[in-house]
Amino acid sequence: MLSKVLIAWPLLFAVLIVPIDAIVKCNGSELSARSDFEVGLLTEKQCTHVIGDIFIMNLNFAKRMPCYWSVREVHGSIIIRNTSNLGDSVNFQNLRTINALDAPALVISKNYRLKLGIGARLGHVYTRNPTTYYIAHNWPRMMTESQHYTLYNAAAKDRPVFFADYFFQTTPCAETAYKTLAAIFGCVSFLVAIVLIFWACYGRRPKDLKY
Ligand SMILES: *[C@@H]1O[C@H](CO)[C@@H](O)[C@H](O)[C@H]1NC(C)=O
Ligand SMILES: *[C@@H]1O[C@H](CO)[C@@H](O)[C@H](O)[C@H]1NC(C)=O
Questions:
Q1: How close is the Cα of 88 to the center of ligand 2, in Å?
Q2: Which of 29, 35, 78, 176 is the most exposed, fewest CB within 10 Å of its CB?
Q3: Which positions make up the signal peptide (predicted)?
Q4: Which of 18-22, 29-33, 141-145 shows the lowest per-residue confidence on average (mean pLDDT)?
């Protein structure tokens, strides 16, 4: 019995590891859908490395699009534009690297009810374009991970530039402006607190103090 278990373990690992490590190269066009009709033509390969831009656009309503789950590296941009009610259909849960050329690495614009999933493995994002992430005119601003939610919020202006560290913590470039705002907010909060404390100590009418 024990020996059977000992034999079974390596087999189990082999089964688990081989498909994960295999590299499947795909062309970005195989993973692109520019209309609802083209969703049916998406590749059924478990692509891990994608060469070329991925376009997901002009779609309506939730779809089953498992072709993005296995993608680890994209050599090109990911462009999601003009979609509505896709929900969490688009999920790049294994994405680690985006190496774009001249366009921003990630373009997410004019989407309604998109809950884009990008796993926490995304670490290397590169583009020659001055804007790394172009995220604008989406409603509501939704991503699955809280860090990406920060990214969405900070991207309210039209041409945001973000730096992403290994864990995809993002820093907006207008850092001094944010610091100033934070300082002003801090001072105002402090003053309000002082006023409330004074009011609590001295502002009560005599009938409140009868005990
Ligand atoms: C990808 O597909 C497009 C159109 O189908 C083609 O023009 C392009 O050359 C392909 N790219 C690669 C790297 O195979
Ligand atoms: C946006 O997508 C819809 C289909 O969902 C399409 O009818 C419309 O023409 C698209 N708009 C643009 C500007 O491409």
A1: 20
A2: 176
A3: 1-22
A4: 141-145
